[in-house]
Amino acid sequence: MSTSPTRIVMKFGGTSVADLDRIRAVAARVKEERDKGHQVAVVVSAMAGVTNRMVGYCHALDPMADAREYDAVVASGEQVTSGLTAIALQALGVPARSWQGWQIPFRTDEAHGKARIEDVEGAALLACMEQGVVPVVAGFQGVAPDQRISTLGRGGSDTSAVAVAAAIKADRCDIYTDVDGIYTTDPRIVKKARKLERIAFEEMLELASVGAKVLQTRSVGLAMKEKVRVRVLSSFAPMTEQSGSLVVDEDEIMEKELVTGIAYSLDEAKISVRRIPDRPGIAAAIFSPLTAARVNVDMIVQSVGSDGMTNMTFTVGKADQARALAALEAESDVIQYGEIQTDSDVVKISVVGIGMRSHSGMASTMFETLAERGINVQVISTSEIKISVLIAAEYMELAVRALHTAYGLDAD
């Protein structure tokens, strides 16, 4: 009885395609999968450093550059890589052709610079694969409603790859990067960090959202929604030694750990709006202008009011700090604050695990561990499977190591 071939999307990040030798190595890896009888589609990022250089060009000319022209410039890196990768495959005797975001097309919303994918048409890619040709797709880019090139924001090629996998109903989406899987925390900080064989979509989504750099948050959310199994593995390890880490449905994980991982984010800025009137609607007066300015707010705490006044503290991404301050200052007559204080020398530490749903004492372990080391907690936020705290950046490594041990995550 014949079976249909496995359909795989292989995504390669910037370090994997950093130069021509690495692009040749990528092509050889793709050929190896194809020679096994699999149908393969490839998604590539820009070569390492290229996107940063393009962003630098735009900002050097105008720090507030037209977002549509900005996208036209920064999307060029993926176009180059997709063409070079197709050429490398052809040199190995593998039929291949490059595809740009507008050719597929990836249809996005109008938010240039951080657009969201609304639809991907997989018919053309499937037809290409059925003819034995490997499609090499430029990640990170799409086409907005105004028919202009749009980009998906940093790490957007991961989202492109998952979207392609969903569109062509792939059996798996392999994300090749410079690490060999997903670890309980950053192994550069904690030498005893363990590689996870499997992790639930929900856990990976939380870890990605609070600072883990392995996968982009939106790519995990899309994979969870579309039920796309994702595997993270190294571009540099031999294929025979590959196992990587699988991101799957919770039902596929037999033994659920109380805590799966610890993440940190240095991309945080704390903003405190002080001495504001303690009245109904004051939160809306503060956060509505931030929403209008497309500033994402994360952790929020309001202090207990006195004398009719209160304070509101929250965090935003460092890149959004200036925009957030400008939005608040523009509404100063409405908010009627006394002053605004900012602090970007902070770090967010998060503990994540689906086992936390059914076990008490997870939060107290975190607070006791930090207190024992004299680390002050500035802001706290929680979800069903996550606890996050904001602390001074100088204590980041100490906190991560201590919590990794406290939750029993250290490798034997």
What does this structure look like?
This protein has 13 helices and 22 strands. It has 412 residues and is an alpha/beta fold. The strands form six sheets. The chain has an eight-stranded mixed β-sheet with strand order 3-6-2-1-9-13-14-12, with helices on both faces. A hairpin with a 2-residue loop joins strand 21 and strand 22 (386-392). Helix 1 packs across helix 4 and helix 12 packs across helix 13. The longest helix is centred in the first third of the chain and has 16 residues, at 20-35.
Question: Quick recap of the structure?
Answer:
The protein has 412 residues and is an alpha/beta fold. The chain has helices at residues 20-35, 50-61, 67-74, 76-91, 123-130, 156-167, 201-209, 217-226, 282-292, 321-330, 332-335, 362-372, 396-406, and strands at 7-12, 39-44, 96-99, 106-108, 117-120, 134-138, 141-143, 149-151, 172-177, 182-183, 195-196, 198-200, 230-234, 245-248, 261-265, 268-277, 297-302, 309-317, 339-343, 346-352, 379-383, 386-392.
